[in-house]
Amino acid sequence: MVGNDRREHNRTAMSAKVKVRHGTQGEFVFSTRDISDGGIFIVVESDPFEPTIGDRVEVQVQGLPVPAPILEMVVVRRTNDGFGLQFADQ
Question: Which of 46, 55, 79, 90 has the fewest CB atoms within 10 Å around its CB?
Fold first, then answer.
């Protein structure tokens, strides 16, 4: 780890559409900015998505020829342009 970067996993830039389902806020479709073995970063532009750090969400990649699995993730980070989500089994 270098400087203030506390990430355990290397990130790979990846733009994909993902459906995010939050228990009280509903369902949204966002783009990813990157992915790692630990999680993903979703870009939130104008949607009214305001989860709390620690909230659990369900995430499913969209646009594949077959339905992708639904994964449980945890909101672990917020920035000006989106949220970092960690796989719940990490």
Answer: 46
Q: What is the DSSP string of the chain?
A: --TT---SS--EE---EEEEEETTTEEEEEEEEEE-SSEEEEE-SSS---PPTT-EEEEEE-S-SSPPPPEEEEEEEEETTEEEEEETT-
pLDDT tens figures, 11-57: 889 999 999 999 999 999 999 999 999 999 999 988 789 999 999 99
**Domain containing residue 71: CATH number:** 2.40.10.220
Domain tally, the chain? 1
Domain hosting 76: range is 12-87
Task: Decide if 71 is inside a domain.
Answer: yes
Instruction: Indicate the pTM of the whole model.
Output: 0.86
Query: In this structure, are residues 29 and 51 in contact, taking their beta carbons and an 8 Å threshold?
Result: no
